[in-house]
């Protein structure tokens, strides 16, 4: 069933274009794209901040581990430099402890022969001249 006849006189009439509507649609499209771009940028910034947070936490843990290792190494160095440890290691190497007679002789020798004692005074002429 056909309701409209085929030979209508208004078939040649064209609708006018509404340029204001096209402009509004273009502005709306650009605003939507700008808003979507802002959301994408903000999401990217958020993910970068989260990544930096994880890296910072990892670096803090590594710093704590390095400080603990430093403490352990300083303790080991102090234990190795302890006088009792040095004495036992020296005896293993065959060294003997200094006797009182040896100390007295060297002090007496310095007092008797002052020219052989190391000079503690500053040089009489400046080094620059």
Sum up the structure in keywords.
129 residues, mainly alpha
* Total beta-strand segments: 0
Number of helices: 3
| Beta-strand percentage range | under 5%
Secondary structure category: mainly alpha
- Biggest sheet character: none
Q: Taking Cα atoms only, what radius of gyration do you get, to the nearest Å?
A: 47 Å
pLDDT under 50 segments (min length 5)? none
Report the helical percentage: 55-70%
- Cα distance, first to last residue? 125 Å
Helix/strand order? HHH
Overall geometry: rod-shaped
Mean pLDDT: 82
Summarize the structure.
The protein is mainly alpha-helical and 129 residues long. It has helices spanning 19-80, 83-93, 100-112.
What does this structure look like?
The chain has 129 residues and is mainly α. The protein is 67% helix and 0% strand. The protein has helices at 19-80, 83-93, 100-112. The mean pLDDT is 82.
SSE diagram, text form:
Layout: H1 19-80, H2 83-93, H3 100-112
């Amino acid at each position: 069933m056909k309701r409209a006849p085929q030979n209508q006189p208004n078939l040649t009439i064209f609708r006018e274009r509404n340029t204001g509507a096209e402009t509004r649609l273009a502005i709306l499209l650009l605003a939507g794209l700008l808003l979507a771009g802002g959301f994408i940028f903000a999401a990217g910034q958020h993910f970068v901040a989260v990544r930096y947070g994880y890296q910072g936490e990892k670096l803090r843990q590594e710093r704590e581990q390095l400080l603990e290792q430093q403490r352990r190494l300083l303790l080991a160095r102090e234990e190795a430099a302890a006088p009792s440890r040095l004495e036992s290691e020296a005896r293993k190497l065959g060294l003997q402890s200094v006797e009182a007679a040896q100390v007295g002789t060297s002090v007496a020798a310095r007092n008797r022969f002052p020219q052989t004692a190391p000079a503690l005074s500053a040089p009489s002429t400046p080094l620059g001249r």
